[in-house]
Amino acid sequence: MSLNPFDLFDIRSLLSEEERAVQATVARFTDTRVLPIIGDAFDEGRFPDELIPEIAALGLLGSSLPEQYGGGGLNAVSYGLICQELERGDSGLRSFVSVQSSLCMYPIYAYGSEEQRLRWLPDMATGKVIGCFGLTEAHGGSDPAAMKTRAVRDGGDWLINGSKMWITSGPVADIAIIWAHTEDGIQGFVLEKGMAGFSTQEIKHKMSLRASLTGALFFDNVRVPDRNRLPNVQGLKGPLGCLNQARYGISWGPIGAAVACLDEALAYTKQRVLFGRPVAATQSAQIKLADMARRITTGQLLALQLGRLKDAGQLQPQQVSLAKWNNCRMAIDIARECRDLLGGAGITTEHVAIRHALNLESVITYEGTETVHQLVIGRELTGINAF
């Protein structure tokens, strides 16, 4: 019996019936709704927002949150599979779902009041309210503690000044989860579109995540009522807890990008004839393809165990760092190798490899660069902080 080239260790057999159903549903959506339009959207630098109602209808926004807040109550493995199948289409689409679910809905659920949960989460689950997450600043990057955005009490309100950079969904978001220094440490606030002094600017000229909206956020004495402050967390553990949720999903997403690239490379090398035989009949091509399959299989097993640990309540942030580092590196290397196997054709967006390779330049950078995650593991091994 032939093995599935994209599941050599029959990982599907390790999934529950519900997990398999979730993966199959999102895979169909990616095949029928995403893949036919995403190449053009990437070329045009356009986020396909027409897909948002369908994404919401499938229950992909806040899928792991309780049903009472509009979520689907799915487990962590199911959320990982959602990210994997969406990123098989495009990293930009997975980024949208990741930001909405892990970076915006999660902090309101985990750190917000019951009033805030009921006010925003159901509408976010339906896509009626779009969120963005404001932590990164232009000068800060990997050092979030160096943020310059400040929130100062003014009576029963807060005045916020500062800016945020590289914010997915920023130009179209209805609310923004903003982290700022206060006299009591770093705190989170929910800013609403239309608040005086709150403005956004789309970032243009991107060569990566072109099918995603990225922006900068600016705060000029934005008056925010205290009821919009997330009351149940203080300090960096707030935003870092959100990032850990997002990094978990990113550990799964690049597997989908890698599978898409391998799928294309297999078909192309079997069809393309050079020197009297298909490229796939050469030893050099087969060695490359086999190595890709090995790395994908390793990444799949790593992600699945990560999900099982998360569902068991045993997940450690260092394990997320290792998986994010490994799987992003795996995927970007595979995308580049597949581009090479396609030859000159590989540089056009009529094929998926170059699009995924370009997107993965962002994925390997955001939510902690590869170097940051390497240093997290180094600190865990040695007990010495080298940051």
Automatic annotation (TrEMBL):
Q: Does the keyword Flavoprotein apply?
A: yes
Report the residue ranges that make up the Acyl-CoA oxidase/dehydrogenase middle domain in this protein. Answer: 132-222
Q: Which residues form a coiled coil?
A: none
Enzyme class label = oxidoreductase
| Pathway assigned in UniProt | Amino-acid metabolism; lysine degradation; Amino-acid metabolism; tryptophan metabolism
Q: Name one GO molecular function term.
A: glutaryl-CoA dehydrogenase activity
Q: Which GO BP annotation is one of this protein's?
A: fatty-acyl-CoA biosynthetic process
Q: Which residues form the Acyl-CoA dehydrogenase/oxidase N-terminal domain?
A: 16-128
Q: Which cofactor does it need?
A: FAD
Q: Which reaction does it catalyse?
A: glutaryl-CoA + oxidized [electron-transfer flavoprotein] + 2 H(+) = (2E)-butenoyl-CoA + reduced [electron-transfer flavoprotein] + CO2
Give start and end of each Acyl-CoA dehydrogenase/oxidase C-terminal domain.
235-381
Q: Which domain of life is it from?
A: Bacteria
Listed InterPro entries? Acyl-CoA_DH_CS, Acyl-CoA_Oxase/DH_mid-dom, Acyl-CoA_Oxase/DH_mid-dom_sf, AcylCo_DH-like_C, AcylCo_DH/oxidase_C, AcylCoA_DH/ox_N, AcylCoA_DH/ox_N_sf, AcylCoA_DH/oxidase_NM_dom_sf
Q: Which UniProt keywords apply?
A: FAD, Flavoprotein, Oxidoreductase, Transit peptide
Q: What is its EC number?
A: 1.3.8.6
Q: Give the protein family.
A: Belongs to the acyl-CoA dehydrogenase family.
Q: List the protein's name.
A: glutaryl-CoA dehydrogenase (ETF)
Classification from the root reads: Bacteria, Pseudomonadati, Pseudomonadota, Gammaproteobacteria, Lysobacterales
